[in-house]
Design brief:
The chain is of the alpha/beta class and 356 residues long. The chain folds into three domains: 196 residues, 3-Layer(aba) Sandwich (Rossmann fold), CATH 3.40.50; 53 residues, SH3 type barrels, CATH 2.30.30; 78 residues, Translation factors (Elongation Factor Tu (Ef-tu), domain 3). It has eight helices and 17 strands. The strands form three sheets. It has a six-stranded antiparallel barrel with strand order 12-15-14-13-16-17. The protein has a five-stranded parallel sheet with strand order 3-2-1-4-7, sandwiched between helices. It starts with 8 loop residues before the first strand and ends with a strand.
Length: 356
């Protein structure tokens, strides 16, 4: 594994999971002066919760390093929970993870490290890599070696300052290698099950349960593109673009959610072609590894975490916006999700898909 020798003090974000535990243990075994830092985001089970803090504290005790806990519940409530609830009420499907990484985790962590501990670097258990390009004088965010675990999609919104101050010890590792290291280090979390992609799902059991806690279930119509009523729903926040299952409608052909009309409390459905578009606009764009282009460029665009990156023309628009024109029409382009641009394994930038 590549040794990181450019510093000897680092604050490691510990969630209580195996990945962050191995990140801390690896740096500790490489001779770094490690300080563990856990953000208390919410109460409940799972990582980022009360249970995760206990496991994080145990890991620090095993390694013989200090452990700090910062109460971030108010920040998490404002930037993530309120953001999610407002988005689902408006008929979009928000992506909380990239916002959480920048505003709740990386930003506050590096601020705490620098101002409270006098340490310039933080590390996390994310599967991604950072390199420095001397020609452009910019840090570059890259995909992880293990593409099945790559998390660069969720990190597109990081700034140059945050990239410069961050280390990803697991970026060069396969997940199986991480587990092996956890066993070699005899970490308490070595056999801990994999966490959910979204901590709120892990804490509440399902996204539906979480949303129903904050949004009242209001009956409305499920209609086709012509406005014909086909059925009823119990709240538009239970649906997302491209959804097929759970519609409760008998039809001769498969139907998919193609729109959510919050104003009229309607779920709009149609066949697969109706859920396919050749372009979309993207707002709140952050150019992470390159300067903002002033002319159209070519890139590979990934419009969902689990979807492949596909070729597209990228057209800069006024402000922090861009237009993506795909070589081939794409299914289930979902407002509120991130569109992240790649050049090979380099993350060029990304933003939030806007409503059509």
């Amino acid at each position: 594994m590549l040794r990181l020798d450019f510093m000897n003090r680092v604050v490691v974000g510990l969630s209580g999971g195996v990945d962050s535990s191995v990140a801390a243990a690896t740096l500790h075994h490489q001779g770094y002066e490690v300080v563990g830092l856990t953000l208390w985001l919410m109460k409940g089970k799972g990582q980022c919760c009360s249970e995760g803090m206990v496991d994080a504290a145990f890991i620090c005790e095993q390694l013989g390093v200090p452990h700090h806990i910062v109460d971030s519940r108010e920040v998490f409530q404002h930037h993530i929970i309120d953001y999610l609830v407002t988005g689902y009420e408006a008929g979009i499907t928000p992506l909380p993870c990239s916002a959480c990484n920048k505003t709740v985790k990386f930003g506050p962590m590096i601020k705490y490290a620098r101002e409270q501990l006098g340490i310039d670097k933080i590390a996390t258990g994310h599967y991604a890599r950072i390199s420095y390009d001397a020609a452009s004088d910019r840090y570059q965010l890259r995909r992880a070696v293990d593409l099945t675990k790559d998390q660069s999609y969720f990190l597109y919104d990081l700034t140059q300052d945050l990239l410069a101050g961050s280390i990803f010890p697991l970026g060069e590792l396969k997940k199986t290698e991480t587990r092996q290291l956890a066993a070699e280090y005899k970490l308490k979390t070595a056999d801990k099950p994999e966490s959910q992609d979204l901590c709120l799902v892990e804490s509440h059991g399902s996204m539906r349960t979480f949303l129903d806690k904050y949004i009242s279930q209001t009956t409305g119509d499920i209609v086709d593109a012509d406005g014909k009523v086909l059925g009823q729903h119990q709240g538009i926040h239970h649906y997302t673009i491209g959804q097929r299952k759970g519609l409760g409608i008998a039809a001769a052909q498969a139907l998919y959610v193609i729109g959510l009309d919050a104003g009229r409390n309607r779920v709009i459905v149609g066949d697969r072609t109706c859920a396919t578009q050749s372009e979309c606009t993207v707002g709140r764009v952050n150019w992470v590894s390159i300067s903002a282009p002033i002319a159209p460029i070519r890139a590979s665009a990934q419009i969902r975490y689990r979807s492949p990156a596909v070729p597209a023309n990228v057209i800069p628009l006024e402000g922090d916006r861009m237009k993506l024109v795909f070589d081939e029409p794409q299914f289930s382009i979902t407002p509120g999700q991130a569109a992240v641009l790649y050049d090979g394994d380099i993350v060029l930038g990304g933003g939030i898909i806007e409503r059509f």
